[in-house]
Every structure is written in C-alpha cells, then in structure tokens.
Design a protein that fits this description.
single chain, 237 residues, mainly beta, Ribosomal protein L2, domain 3, SH3 type barrels, 2 domains, 10-stranded mixed beta sheet, 2 helices
Length: 237
Amino acid sequence: MGKRIVSQARGHGSLTYRVRKKVYQYRIGYPPIGTEEKARIIKLINSAAHSAPLAKIKIEYGKKEIIFYNLAFDGAVEGQEIELGKEIKDGNIITLENAKQGTRVYNIEIKPGDGGKLVRSSGSFAEVIEKSKNMVKILMPSKKEIEFNEKCRATIGIVAGAGRLEKPIVKAGKKFHMMKSKGRKWHFTSKVKVNAVDHPFGGGRGKRIKSKIAKRNAPPGARVGHIRPRRTGREKK
C-alpha cells in the first residue's frame, strides 16, 4: 500500500504541514474610512507570521478608543505619534490623492477600505510617480506600474526590517524553527531527485526526467509543474 505524495499531504493539512494558529493572531489593517485623527504607537510586536515587526496603534476619541495593527515603518519607536490625514511624514496613513509625486508608501489598499494588501514585506516600498483624474499611478517594488483609486489608503515610509536576509542563519536548527512557524516544507530538494512516492517528478533515474507540464485532468495533489498551455508554437497572423 502506498502513501500520500508530499503535494497531497500538504494540501490535506496534517500537523506536519499546518501552521500554528497563534502565529496569525495579529491582523493588519486600517481604522474605518473617514478617520482623521492623531494616533500613538503603543507597542512594537515581533510576529512570527510576518517578515517585518508590527506596530500596535491606538486612537483615542475622548473616552472611546480604536486599536489596530499596522506594519512598523523604518525608524518607528514606541510612544511615537502618527496622523491619519494629509501630512506627508513617515508612519502617517493617508489617501493616495494626498500623496505627492515621489512619496514612498507601503501597505497599499487595492480597494478603498480593505485595510491594505500590497507592499508589506520587510524593507519594501512603492513610489508615487503620477497622478491623473481619480487615479494614482504607483511604481511597485517589482518595477511594474499600477494604477490605484485615489481614495485607497497607504502608509508613508519604508517597511521596517530591511536587511533581514543579509544576516546568515548559521545553524540548521534555527532554519528548522523558522520554517515550522510558517508551516512550510523544509528542506527543499530538487523534485526529480526524490522518490516516486514523494512527488510526481520523483523516481526519474538517470536522464529520464518527466515532463514538467502537468496533465490537464490531473488530480489536485498530482497537478504540479507548469500549467498545461492551450496551444504551443508561434502564433499565426
């Protein structure tokens, strides 16, 4: 009797391939649309689920208060004041319509009010390059230009934690625990080098390597490699 291949085991989600729930206890987002107040960073948090530190931010409305979590910007300190409004200053949260050309931003909303979805990894930032009617064009870290609704919000500055990958890991044990917190497969081995029971590409002895294009009707666990193209060859004009 065989066993599940690794691709299927990961999809099934056993204890081996499941991330700890506690890791994802912090949800990044922004306060409700229309909030334009001063806020304060009350704590900087090391989250195992994120590559950058998080900032716990509090807004006070007299006796009421709003607490939310955002990615910390480079140079953030506990107790620092930030604003939700129009001022261009590191850490402030603004709508893109108020951003000047050349402003560096991160945690950008795709739709107004979604809490920020793009440019969230440590040390990353995007740059406002052009503004037109109701739209703002931004140069992403990938050097791709994308247009956003001017009502989308973003945080000014650069995400903290730049240089995270420059420090060597040194010990295999440390790498093991890092991957354990993310629930990912480790070590990484070339797929054609493993046994046939571990991967659809496995068991290819010598030069007999299997095709990396998945069969069109392959089941989810075995559908690995490149997506089957609709057609091949040069397009006829």
